């Protein structure tokens, strides 16, 4: 009996002792989901009536904040819109230049990123033209100057780096779009051959086009990779006003390189009293880097 009690007390005593933290198998902290958004916010056009930027800016910021995007590639942003969003979303920093002069003139295709989550290792801009290093240049049948902004970022949660690019293709020139796609693909092969790659943008084409085929020859459409069924409508070019039963063209994309997993994908159709925050619906993908 004494032996039994001694054994019992010994067992209880051992259970009450603090557990050595080194003996616990640590959880895998390397797989942090990365929430990436592509969002054409519509430029600040005073002729947009009730949909002018002062009436929309809080809604745009609310969508970004509520859906918890870590990295947001925007299109059509003017400098004053960027400054408004920086004030409304102080937890983010941004990168980008004006397309007309490489500084402040014209629309930006900037991207916002969580300042406490990412380290910017490198960054740059090139123009979608036959002279990519010349600010303000345009070629082929492009109606407007277009550019691509890129950065090499490190996610400080797991120290994993990746290459990110955000762009906006021409809305009229078919040749300009196909040549822009070829330019971007060739640049990625040189600049980020062995890195995880994420590309966001308004490409102004549906999936049936040559431009889309060029992009997806080396990258993957995140919608098609999503482990969970895609959320929301398929199309992204919605106009400002909700029209029940209507279908939209899918022209905004998040492309990823081989090896990146897409846990979730959605087109966000949040609206206020029948109005969207922009004439494009934002696209959101939750990614896992390899």
TrEMBL record:
InterPro entries: CCR4/nocturin_mRNA_transcr, Endo/exonu/phosph_ase_sf, Endo/exonuclease/phosphatase. Signal peptide: none annotated. Pfam families: Exo_endo_phos. One of its GO terms (molecular function) is 3'-5'-RNA exonuclease activity. Residues 37-280 form the Endonuclease/exonuclease/phosphatase domain. PANTHER family: CARBON CATABOLITE REPRESSOR PROTEIN 4 (PTHR12121), ENDONUCLEASE_EXONUCLEASE_PHOSPHATASE DOMAIN-CONTAINING PROTEIN (PTHR12121:SF36). This is Endonuclease/exonuclease/phosphatase domain-containing protein.
